[in-house]
Amino acid sequence: MTAVAHRRGREARLALSDEEALFGKRPAAPPTHVLGQSLDDLSAPELAERISSLTREIERLQAAIEAREATRQAASSFFKS
Asked: Could you state, in order of their start, the residue ranges of all structural domains in the chain?
């Protein structure tokens, strides 16, 4: 990394921190789906996209559960030895 690129990166970080100091952190993006939300105004493609998005989230949650179970089993077998 050149000195100029390093300085620009540092300036960008400083500018971001200055912005956060003045205005606070940027608000989080609103959720794309709220459980129980009315579906009346959504088209079939929008509903399909919601299903796809929720399926990806379910898969992510299942992977997190599996990782925690594997960690718990490893710890359990370690302490039984």
From this structure: 3-25+40-80
Pairwise CA distance, residues 57 & 50, whole Å: 10
Interval 31-73: pLDDT, tens:
777 889 999 999 999 999 999 999 999 999 999 999 999 999 9
HEC sequence for the chain: CCHHHHHHHHHHHHHHHHHHHHHCCCCCCCCCCCCCCCCCCCCHHHHHHHHHHHHHHHHHHHHHHHHHHHHHHHHHHHHHC
pTM above 0.70, yes or no: no
Identify the CA nearest to 53 among candidates 31, 37, 36: 31
